[in-house]
Amino acid sequence: MNYFATVARGLETLAAQELEQLGAHSVEPGFCGVAFEGDRTLLYRVNLWARLPFRILVDIHEFPCLDAKDLYRGIQTIDWQNYLTPDMTLAVNVTGKNAHLNHSHFTSLQVKNAIVDQQQEKLGERSNVELHEPDVRVNVHIERDFCTVKLDSSGNSLHRRGYRPAVGSAPLKESLAAALIQLSGWKQDQMFYDPLCGSGTLPLEASLKALNIAPGLFRESFGFENWLDFDLVLLEKLLQEAKDSQLDTLPAPIWGSDHDENVIEQAINNAQNCGVDNHVWFSQMELADVVAPADSGILLCNPPYGERLGRDSDLGAFYKLLGDVLKQRFKGWTAFVLSGNKELSQSIGLKSSKRIAVYNGALPCQLMKYELY
Length: 373
Description:
It comes from Nostoc punctiforme (strain ATCC 29133 / PCC 73102). This protein is of the alpha/beta class.
């Protein structure tokens, strides 16, 4: 089968490496996603284990498509009885456009009509549309004169792991946190510390990785569980294998601290939700009081950029303090700071040895690396 993993812009190559490690074939990074091939076992495994993608889509059809008529006819050439019964609900998601199909709501309506008209004609009844929790999500992509039809095997976005009902005011997506950890080159036998941890996403993603815990274990369900060809025995086997492969202890300590007592409470709750509260250490601490807890390690943090937090506070002074703490107290460490504000990052007052462009949502950011001697 041909699959497509959707990922955040800029993380395509990193996600391709992850998919190859999970056993994917013919892996091809594209724009905001990665095409790959594999069997049903791989589809389930990627949904369960991949830390970077949002959704795993399955190709079912592709056809030339200039306008609404072509679209309707092309969708009707698919035998929807293979994917959908009238008692199942459906949602259509549209990306891309061409000269005649340039309004996603109109395009999705055409697709929905083509599907339910076929059901009505063949079976005398039709599926209802359910936008939030449908049984089957149909993904349609229009590009130039072609339409690609895929089914969404994930359901809710995979970045919503399910362990994090509690978040601070500007949370990192779990998938981006996992990507930053990957980009830092952190090895599990190194200490990991986030002195600005908020509700704990970076330390929690690091601990899941270090303990070899599949991020999909916390989800209530995957989209493919509603499909007509769903293999419950296969999924249960993969879930059991994932549980059996977890480690009992961290190879090195993972810490998080933050000045806000409330978000530290949230971080501890989130750690309990993913069963790592006995492994990862969270504490309330002012940045000015932070000292290196070991001789060496990886420090990774996401300070406020003024986009969503602390507009009125003096962030320049805060960044200068961060730079001073790194310089004076973290000799022997490597620090990574994610910044979405160039001026503020200059206030750190340290020379970065590397800058990696990443996006936090739609915001272009840089992950800056500091070797602290």
